[in-house]
Amino acid sequence: MALHLELVAWAEPQLAVLKIEKKDFMPIVGDAGFRQYFRLHTTPALLAVYGPPDIEKHEQFTQISAHWRAHNINAPQVYAHDFDRGFLLIEDFGQHSLADQLQHCQTLADVAVAYSAPLQHLRALQTVPTTPFYPLYSADLLLQELHLFTEWFVAGLLNIVLTETEKNQLKGLFDAVVAQLSEQPNVIVHRDFHCRNIQVLADHNVGLIDFQDAVFGPITYDLVSLLKDCYQLWPKTFVQTEALNYRKTLPAHLAMASDAAFLEAFHLMGWQRHMKVLGIFSRLALRDNKRRYIDDLPRVIAYVGDAMSECPLLMPFKNWFDARIFSVAKTQPWFNSVTIQT
């Protein structure tokens, strides 16, 4: 039986128990993972979801959703699940994402308004008490993510073979960066908090999706994911103003010592995230044949460069990166020059 028919066969009795009439079963475009989505056009609005049970974290998604909803964080309600088969029946937040809203912004003032609700929701999320089922965003995990850069972007996409000296120098830098990141106050981290994972709801509130990889880790991670979004590019002064305005709203134990300390932590965290993303987008293109992510690499490279210019710790890496990596990247057919305005 075809997968979508199996999902229909499973979903229909679940809907009957819920006394919800199925009106349709339309496939919709998914995300970077292996999940498949079907819009049911029911009342209340629901999605049927399939994800390979050996790959996708449906149980974690369900557990986190319940925890967030108990603390007034808008996560989709899970109405039914079959973890063994990889089936979910969840609340449908609709088709209007923050990415869609940002496309219609005419000025940076409009962008600031669009970011208001997501930032309020992030602030609420970061004050939710954690529980043991959130893994620690450990030094080992942060390092594993940085190694995606060398494995998939440097070696995989650019075909650059690093010397042992270069590998040792990168290891030293990665260790130093992660040591600094590990000193940040820890909160619940969505871990992919960007415009495509934030749905704009009818009441101008927002709903969060794709949070099954949530962890307990550095406070600046989700903030930099949003303000230095891999799919958006805003002037540096706007980003830094929004980041510092956000800091002012945090409880004292999360706000760090000063604006300067917060901004340095913010930029360094952004460097770690965007180095990781260079690897992830390359892997999506090379391993999973999702070539569209190649088009986003120039923007991510620009963010790496932006962080290097803001963090003294990264200056030696900047010289190496420009000579060894950027010089090759800019010769690639997918490269186009991206500049972050001041």
- Numbering strands along the chain, what is their spatial order in the largest sheet? 1-2-3-5-4
Unreliable spans: none
Characterize the overall form.
globular
* Overall helicity: 40-55%
**Average predicted local confidence, pLDDT:** 94
* Alpha-beta content class: alpha+beta
Which radius of gyration do the C-alpha atoms yield? 21 Å
Distance between the termini: 56 Å
Order of helical and strand elements: HEEEHEEHHHHEEEEHHHHH
Number of strands: 9
Q: Which strand-content bin applies to the residues?
A: 5-15%
What does this structure look like?
By secondary structure, this protein is of the alpha+beta class. It has helices at residues 3-18, 58-70, 98-103, 108-126, 139-157, 164-181, 220-227, 236-248, 259-286, 297-310, 315-329, and strands spanning 26-28, 36-39, 46-50, 78-82, 87-91, 186-189, 198-200, 206-208, 215-218. Strands 1-2-3-5-4 form a five-stranded antiparallel sheet, with helices on both faces. A two-stranded antiparallel ribbon has the order 6-9. It has a two-stranded antiparallel ribbon with strand order 7-8. The radius of gyration is 21 Å and the shape is globular.
